[in-house]
Amino acid sequence: MTGAAFDEVIHAPNRLQICSMLAAVDAMEFSVVREALDVSDSVLSKHVRVLQDAQYASVTKVRRRAWLALTPEGRQALAGHIAALRRIVEQAEADR
Question: Rounded to 10 degrees, what is the CA torsion of 15, 16, 20, 26?
Answer without folding.
Answer: 30
